[in-house]
Design goal:
It is a single chain. This protein is α+β, with helices and mostly antiparallel strands. The chain has 7 helices and 9 strands, in the order H-H-H-H-H-H-H-E-E-E-E-E-E-E-E-E. Among the domains are: about 60 residues; about 60 residues, Roll (SH3 type barrels). It has a 5-stranded antiparallel β-sheet with strand order 6-5-4-1-7. A two-stranded antiparallel sheet has the order 2-3. It has a two-stranded antiparallel ribbon with strand order 8-9. It starts with a helix and ends in a 33-residue tail after the last strand.
């Protein structure tokens, strides 16, 4: 039987695209492994540059961000380390290694840290995970209504399913609401960020924020950003002193995460597996 030309062309195009994806994935994995080896050889600065190159070419993944944060911490860039641990946490919420190394980096800021809590309910899944869970719950809830009419003998079971779907939907909305408030967070990447009463460089600062401290962005004006720090402190700091965890700015080769509605961060190709041990900056040798 003669294969139509259109189908043949589609098949050839699909094969070419598939082969290209395999090649790109292999290149990304090789670059990731090479960066890890550089780190092991005691060259964290060079490893950081290599990992930033992987991100620029292939997008974000939790292992790459985690190892980049480790490299930044090793060379003393605490702010950049905290920033990349936070970003890794968005891709792998609740990961204990990320949480432990983030805590380690924050302790080096000498700032007052909140008490360490067990895994929070909103951190069970990512934003996209909660959105999918909520959509599934809503679909189940909608399906139980006509099924109750079609299957009257199973109304008690369907009623239970409806209750569970409502609980799951409310839980998803609560978690999304809790994480939504974290979208405006930023990290102080300068050694010290001086917060002033107005968006100008004159006058004495109201307070100073050490490197690595998390703040919330309120609004921007010119080259300054109004931030809210711990204990309700507010002040204007230079744009260059902070880096949004999820935003559009790019500094020091760190490609910022795009703040879209789904908050889905592009992952580099490769196997996503548990990260390396915490408490001591080490590399994750698994795929990017």
């Amino acid at each position: 039987m003669k294969v139509p030309k259109f189908i043949a062309r589609v098949a050839i195009a699909a094969a070419v695209i598939g082969f290209a994806q395999i090649v790109v994935a292999g290149e990304a994995s090789s670059a990731f492994d090479a960066a890890n080896q550089t780190y092991v050889e005691g060259k964290p600065d060079e490893a950081a540059r290599s990992l930033e190159s992987v991100i620029a070419k292939q997008g974000y993944s939790a292992p790459v961000l985690f190892n980049l944060a480790n490299a930044k911490l090793r060379v003393g860039k605490v702010g950049q380390a905290v920033l990349n641990y936070e970003r890794a946490g968005w891709l792998a919420p609740g990961d204990p290694d990320i949480a432990a190394n983030l805590r380690l980096a924050q302790e080096r800021t000498h700032a007052v840290l909140p008490a360490a809590w067990p895994l929070r309910f909103p951190d069970w899944f990512s934003m996209s995970g909660w959105a999918g869970f909520g959509a599934s719950s809503l679909t189940l809830l909608a399906a139980t209504l006509p099924l109750a009419l079609l299957l009257p003998r199973h109304r008690s079971v369907l009623r239970l399913a409806r209750i569970l779907a409502v609980v799951a939907l409310l839980g998803s909305l609560t978690a999304i609401g809790a994480r939504w408030g974290e979208l405006n967070r930023a990290v102080v990447v300068a050694k010290v960020a001086e917060a002033r009463i107005a968006p100008v460089s004159v006058g004495s600062p109201l307070f100073r924020l050490p490197e690595g401290v998390l703040v919330s962005i309120v609004k921007s004006h010119g080259s300054f950003t109004l931030v809210s720090a711990s204990k309700g402190q507010r002040g204007w700091v230079s744009h260059e002193a902070i880096e949004p965890v999820i935003g559009s700015a790019t500094r020091e080769g760190n490609q910022s995460l795009k703040n879209d509605q789904s908050v889905i961060l592009p992952k580099a190709p490769g196997k996503q597996s548990p990260l390396a041990s915490a408490h001591e900056p080490s590399v994750d040798h698994r795929g990017s």
